[in-house]
Amino acid sequence: MNTVRWSTLEAALPLNELPAFHRAFLKLHRPELAAETLPLRRVQQYVHQTLLLLVKEGRAKAVQGDFELVPDCIPPPYRP
Length: 80
Prior knowledge:
Elements: E1 4-5, H1 6-11, H2 18-29, H3 40-57, E2 60-63, E3 66-69
Antiparallel strand pairs: 1-3, 2-3
Protein backbone atom coordinates (compact mmCIF):
# COMPACT_ATOMS: atom_id res chain seq x y z
CA MET A 1 0.00 0.00 0.00
CA ASN A 2 1.28 3.46 -0.93
CA THR A 3 1.51 5.72 2.13
CA VAL A 4 2.53 9.27 2.93
CA ARG A 5 4.59 10.07 6.01
CA TRP A 6 3.02 12.92 7.99
CA SER A 7 6.30 14.56 9.03
CA THR A 8 7.59 14.53 5.45
CA LEU A 9 4.41 16.19 4.25
CA GLU A 10 4.58 18.88 6.93
CA ALA A 11 8.30 19.50 6.29
CA ALA A 12 7.64 20.07 2.58
CA LEU A 13 5.31 22.99 3.33
CA PRO A 14 6.46 26.52 4.19
CA LEU A 15 5.87 27.26 7.86
CA ASN A 16 3.25 29.91 7.11
CA GLU A 17 1.17 27.34 5.15
CA LEU A 18 0.96 24.78 7.97
CA PRO A 19 -2.12 26.29 9.67
CA ALA A 20 -4.07 26.18 6.38
CA PHE A 21 -2.93 22.60 5.77
CA HIS A 22 -3.97 21.51 9.27
CA ARG A 23 -7.35 23.22 8.92
CA ALA A 24 -7.90 21.56 5.51
CA PHE A 25 -7.03 18.20 7.08
CA LEU A 26 -9.61 18.73 9.82
CA LYS A 27 -12.21 19.98 7.33
CA LEU A 28 -11.77 16.72 5.41
CA HIS A 29 -12.03 14.42 8.45
CA ARG A 30 -13.93 16.40 11.09
CA PRO A 31 -16.02 19.07 9.38
CA GLU A 32 -18.22 19.40 12.46
CA LEU A 33 -15.32 21.12 14.25
CA ALA A 34 -15.42 24.21 11.99
CA ALA A 35 -11.62 24.30 12.05
CA GLU A 36 -11.44 27.70 10.37
CA THR A 37 -12.87 29.25 13.55
CA LEU A 38 -10.65 27.41 16.04
CA PRO A 39 -7.52 28.87 17.65
CA LEU A 40 -4.33 27.40 16.21
CA ARG A 41 -3.46 25.57 19.43
CA ARG A 42 -6.82 23.77 19.36
CA VAL A 43 -6.34 22.93 15.66
CA GLN A 44 -3.03 21.25 16.49
CA GLN A 45 -4.65 19.22 19.27
CA TYR A 46 -7.46 18.06 16.99
CA VAL A 47 -5.01 17.16 14.20
CA HIS A 48 -3.12 14.82 16.53
CA GLN A 49 -6.36 13.37 17.87
CA THR A 50 -7.61 12.83 14.31
CA LEU A 51 -4.39 11.10 13.28
CA LEU A 52 -4.87 8.69 16.19
CA LEU A 53 -8.47 8.06 15.09
CA LEU A 54 -7.26 7.27 11.56
CA VAL A 55 -4.86 4.72 13.05
CA LYS A 56 -7.77 3.07 14.87
CA GLU A 57 -9.74 3.01 11.60
CA GLY A 58 -6.81 1.36 9.79
CA ARG A 59 -6.33 4.30 7.41
CA ALA A 60 -3.05 5.34 9.03
CA LYS A 61 -0.24 3.68 10.91
CA ALA A 62 1.78 4.99 13.85
CA VAL A 63 5.50 4.59 13.07
CA GLN A 64 8.26 5.70 15.45
CA GLY A 65 6.45 8.77 16.75
CA ASP A 66 5.15 9.65 13.29
CA PHE A 67 2.22 8.62 11.11
CA GLU A 68 1.92 7.03 7.69
CA LEU A 69 -1.38 7.72 5.93
CA VAL A 70 -3.03 6.46 2.80
CA PRO A 71 -3.05 9.31 0.25
CA ASP A 72 -6.83 9.81 0.34
CA CYS A 73 -6.48 10.92 3.98
CA ILE A 74 -4.58 14.00 2.80
CA PRO A 75 -6.58 17.01 1.54
CA PRO A 76 -6.35 17.01 -2.30
CA PRO A 77 -4.36 20.23 -2.72
CA TYR A 78 -1.63 18.78 -0.45
CA ARG A 79 -1.40 15.23 -1.79
CA PRO A 80 2.05 14.37 -3.13
